[in-house]
Predict the 3D structure of the following.
Amino acid sequence: MEKAITLIVNGQSRTVTTDPDRSLLDVLREDLQLTGAKYGCGEGQCRACTVLLNGKAVAACLTSISDAEKQNVLTIEGLSSGSTLHPVQQAFVEEGAFQCGYCTAGMIMGVVGVLKQNSNPAEKDLLTAMNKHICRCCSYPRILKAARRALATAKT
Ligand code: FES
Ligand code: FES
């Protein structure tokens, strides 16, 4: 049975009437037209769908919309301040850390998630978090370079 569910997406209250078992990813993409988070595997294995739920990186494909009720969701669309990119986005641009770009939003949100949990993370924390993400174009060296650049910027 459908239910009205309100969540805070990128700082704005949004209400959707839907099956409470649908995934957060599905609702973001299909109902709210926020298509930055991508559907890759649908099984929590690729992290192309990563968003932040109350500041923590989660796989939106495995998160039900009812789990996000009344919670704060941050997607890639809410990251920049107007035309000013978030430092993690800027680092990815400066390092050219993408090819097709399918994994990029998830990668960026993963790094932002690391920084939200700890503004001075250790290298192993970064690697543990990024290890969950798959890039089919194998841009890993540049992605890691961008992530390290973003962390270095955050520490200055
Ligand atoms: S689509 Fe969510 S982890 Fe792959
Ligand atoms: S840049 Fe193509 S999947 Fe990562």
User: Anything to note?
Assistant: The CA atoms of residues 2 and 18 lie 5 Å apart.
